[in-house]
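One-letter codes give the sequence; the integers encode the fold. A sample entry reads:
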Amino acid sequence: MDLVILIVFILTTFTVIFMPFERSLIAFAGLIAMIVLSPNYSFVDAFKAIDWNVMMILFGAWILSGYLSKSGIPEYIVYYVSRNVGSYSTLLLCLTLIASFITMFVDNVLVILLLGGLAVRAAIAARRDPLVTSMIIGLAANYMGTALLLGDLPPQLLHSIAGAEFLDFIWFREMPGSFILLTISFILTLLVFYRFWFRGDSSIRYSELFRGEVKYNKIVAYIAIIGFIAFITLASIRPILGVELGAIAVSVAITVASIIELIKVRTKREDIPSFEEIIRDLEWRVIIFYAALFSLVGGLKKGGVLSEISYILVDYIAGDLIISYTIIYWLVALLSTVIEHDAIVLIMLLTIRDLAQTTGIDPWPLYWAVVWSGTLGSNATIAGAPALYLSLILAEKEKGRASWKEWMKITVPFTITSLLIHYIITLILFQTIYN
């Protein structure tokens, strides 16, 4: 095992979590240090370690999301809902459910940007705590991102590493898939916290949230929605087409962009976003961070660190399914509370794949354990789920600086409850199916 690679990775991870620097810059600085200091890892190795299929999925999905956001349709949906509810609690519940649905197709950071600010304004108007409101939206957006293939990085890693297809997230091997199971556990978790978060009769008027009537660009909205439908349809039949999902994502996104750009040029309408605007507003820092993350984990694989982890875990997970599922589920959940969960999910999926190849075990229950517990566990802290940091910032703009105790009073109970509920549901299901 290459200790230099391991030490550089640990130091890089520590710096990303605890130091107030741009994490994409830290990740790339760590990658360069790994390449320079280790004789076993080169720039070519680092480039090859990047999963370009996943990167293209992210790139294509974010372009589609950008057009959908620029069309104004998400804000219009919230505007429409707010006009038909009379209380803050009902509006917050609706926003939470909307966030959980949209995040299955749109990056969770964008969902929080779209809905978090509105939720905070609603809390201020109703004289409620904006921190609680904003964090609830963040928790919902992060929670359901793993329900389908398109929403977040962990399910896309599961597709790239293990071969999970779009329909596998709905129904998998004669049992409910991630979409159904996460929806059930999410609703049950909300029921547990209903009396704390969603009860009360504080009235609120939509005029306090919006200045005038909210409209959306029908041309852009319809084309973007059709693009999403086309993407989902093609993703569903991808095994038949024999085309990489990343190629489908980019092809659909560029087609949508070309059509909208052509309409903008022909009609000269200023309210139609240009492709330049969409590209400019992409989360390039996140894309850079993910590329560096793939390369850093590639260094762990090249340096034999993942093989060492596999060797340590083999005695624990090569036996009884229930025991191995439990160990992986709670181990990943615990690690994801303090380490960026995308990194943990990537490392553990690769480790389990290697273990399955050497021991012959069925890796799928463990794959799902990693993806689910990594996502749910990350809701505990802003270190595990950086999207929650955005929720915190939105609240602090109105409330002032919040201590870690304040926001952890919200996130930790929710995380523990959701992990327990989802663990019990999935454990019973796997025990029934595999026995």
Residues 3-434 form one domain. The first helix runs from residue 3 to 18. Residues 182 and 242 are 29 Å apart (CA to CA).
